[in-house]
């Protein structure tokens, strides 16, 4: 039958023969403290399929869940599974996807469907981009018009939408059942037109609800104390709703904010965020500040060859005691066109991003001076300026999300697309059987 699994396991021993999966008993056991076994690593597992049964050993419940994801991929359309022994564990602790629910709003059911999708690939974080110029998507008791006026629009019109606190809790709980941590983002001080439209005192000038896709024109009123009351209230409520360890504060494309004001805002806003007890994440521009709370994580979104300043700003997080999540736009921005014929998507990051482009890069080689241990993980963002349905999201995500998952999970090795291709073909066949859309 062959062993075609994405992401590629650490070790695979193939044996002769196969069995019907539904005819084999499955036993699950706690991990053994052996340095030769995947089950000794956090989120790791061993999977043994033999004629007399299937045995899973896992370090934790997440490892057992991932073993079952591997087993599901191994099982063919006829229900047969090859006899095999697999030792497996992840390269990086943070393996993520991002869904932009601000440009277009996606209801709870759609977010749950995307959680199901990313769980297939052993991804363990979903970053929700909850606010932008086009909409504020999480209800806050302290500032109710954020989801009154601020949630009334989206790109292209047609209304917007928002999550109540109970909606958000439902998403968080559903994610946790799949060993996925929700990472919420309130983007600031730029990308804030929706907030200013709801509360004009948050800006230096009033704003109207916005349905376009241009960026960089909005900014909070940096020197107003009212702004920091808003930041404190918003982050306090967000932290209380979020059991996971992270809050994302954005910080990107603040083109309408002077450098002096940006530095002032980031120092104050991150101090407020850190006071919630959460670990903060910011896009790499936030690394312009040298007053970040220790341990703040930078998210790199420049190219696989860094643009001017991107490497310096990214390394700033490490120099201040933090680590880095890699999201190079020209490799794993999933909203980018596959090629010139792709109907949906954008192409500003060095043109279309083919499947080969999404696979043939090495995380540790992107930012000069960034060591392997400085990398927390990899995240594949899905921006939604051109995407309004979950079917469209799946078509743009798959199969390129599989590339990101393999880079995040599998050991460092030369990435040869010809070797990846047959496993990817098997994976898209698996998606077909599940009814998951792909390009």
TrEMBL record:
Recorded catalytic activity of this chain's protein: Hydrolysis of terminal non-reducing N-acetyl-D-hexosamine residues in N-acetyl-beta-D-hexosaminides
Residue ranges of every copy of the Beta-hexosaminidase bacterial type N-terminal domain listed in the record: 35-88
Residue ranges occupied by any Glycoside hydrolase family 20 catalytic domain in the UniProt entry: 92-411
Coiled coil segments of this chain: none
Transmembrane portions of the chain: none
EC code(s) of this entry: 3.2.1.52
Protein family membership: Belongs to the glycosyl hydrolase 20 family.
Gene3D superfamilies hit by this protein: Chitobiase/beta-hexosaminidase domain 2-like, Glycosidases
Annotated organism of origin: Antiquaquibacter soli
InterPro entries the record matches: Beta_hexosaminidase_sua/sub, GH, Glyco_hydro_20_cat, Hex-like_dom2, HEX_bac_N
Pfam families: Glyco_hydro_20, Glyco_hydro_20b
Protein name listed in UniProt: beta-N-acetylhexosaminidase
Keyword line: Glycosidase, Hydrolase
